[in-house]
Design a protein that fits this description.
Helix content: 25-40%
Number of strands: 5
Mean pLDDT: 80
Distance between the termini: 34 Å
Largest sheet: 5 strands, antiparallel
Length: 119
């Protein structure tokens, strides 16, 4: 449970100190080992403006988006390149998965040492 609390605290701190703007999906970018069906990942390339500067970022891995789609983007003023898409998939999902996996692992370990009484 502490893992969820720490994750939530970090995300809320980022959100409270961040600015929001709109970004546009410019293309779907394939990256990975060999850019084939095996070992590669697709991410949406998103561009947004911070003042007069154009910033390009990649969206969540494995989630292609329609070109021209307008998405909300959260970024820190001192580091706009470290921006995230402000929706469930882009902001919460990846971290929640990394919180849930250890919880499942430790639950399985805990339950495996409990002896079942057989009558």
């Amino acid at each position: 449970m502490a893992i969820f609390g720490i994750f939530y605290f970090i995300k809320i701190q980022f959100k409270n100190g961040a600015l929001i703007t709109e970004g546009v999906v410019t293309k779907n970018y394939m990256h990975g080992i060999n850019k084939s069906d095996f070992g590669s990942t697709i991410s949406a390339e998103i561009q947004f403006y911070v003042g007069d500067s154009l910033v390009t970022m990649l969206g969540p891995e494995g989630q292609p988006m329609d070109v021209g789609l307008i998405v909300p983007v959260l970024y820190k003023a001192d580091n706009p390149a470290n921006a995230v898409i402000y929706n469930f998939d882009g902001f919460w999902l990846h971290g929640l998965i990394w919180c849930i996996l250890p919880a499942i692992f430790w639950t399985a370990i805990s339950l495996s040492v409990i002896k079942v009484r057989q009558d």
